[in-house]
Structures are given as C-alpha cells and as structure tokens.
Task: structure prediction
Amino acid sequence: MKDLGGLKYFLGIEVARSKQGIFLSQRKYVLYLLAETGMLDCKLANTPIVQNHHFVVHPDQVPTNRDRYQRLVGRLIYLSHTKPDIAYAVSVVSQFMHSPSEAHMGAVERILRYLKSSPGRGIMFSKNDHYRIEGYTDVDWAGNVTNRRFTSGYFTFVGGNLVTWQSKKQKVVTLSSAEAEYRGMAKGVCKLLCL
Result:
C-alpha cells in the first residue's frame, strides 16, 4: 500500500480542504458535460426547471433522440451527488426515459443552462460544535398531470451539514393535501430515525 496524500479528486468529485471544512464539487465534470453537449456558450437559466411545469407523454409528441436523452439524464443523476439544487428537476426528467420528447429534452437543456450559471457550486461540510440532526420535507400534492401521484422530497442535516436528500414521485395517489403531507413527513422521519 502507498500513501497518496490528501484526497483531491475522486470519480469526478473535487475535494477542497480548508480551516472551515471540506468542500465537494464537480466543476470539471460540469464543464466537460457542457463542452460535450456544445452548451459552453449557452444562455444562462436562473432555475433548473420552470415553475408549475406539466410534463406528460402525449401520443402526438415530437420524439427526440432517446439514447442521447438517457445518457444526459444519467449524467445529471450523477451530478446530483454534489448538487442537491438540481435533484427535483432531475427526478422530473428521469420519469420520461422510456419516451422522451422535444419538450423533455428542452427541460434537460434548461438544467444544463442552470449548471452553466454556477459550475463550481457544491456542498460544504463545515466544522461545527454540535451534532444536532435536523430534517425538512415537502410534497407536491397531485402534481403529476397524468396519474395524480405526488412528489415528495426531504433533506437532512447532521451538525449543520447537509448529508442526505431525495426527491421522488410516490407510488400512491393521496386523497388530500394533508395525507400527502403526512406521507412526505413519514418518509423524512424514517430517514431521521435511521440517522
């Protein structure tokens, strides 16, 4: 075995250490992805997805290159390891892997334009004097236009540092927004109890 020194780069994740803590980002990976897709000179987007979007699969939709779509979404899923701000948008576009349209590809390109606005953004793990565990949840009741399922999301902090996050379309249809909120909180509480 050989000591290679402090970790700086591993599987596309850049690691920077300072007195304040450890910072993880995927800046090189973002720039590589933008260069590969020809979007280095693209117009910037303020948010990764449009507000109140209603993406569905239509029988008369204009199809797009499915292999390219799946490859891009797969890379965005990998990017969400250090970019929780794109987790919801990536979960939305990943629902259409089987039958993507030009509208869905436009949503993927918007995520890329958002990444262009801040390629070096990542996660900071700071040194703190406490180890409190905190969690936050949110749901989108009946947000899916096709089947009225809801999307729930949570993120948890340990010692003031973000450690887990998830955004996922649920398998059930809830009858009220209160039921959706309770189900979303149950998922978040399960993760908190696990931590």
Summary: The CA atoms of residues 147 and 173 lie 8 Å apart.
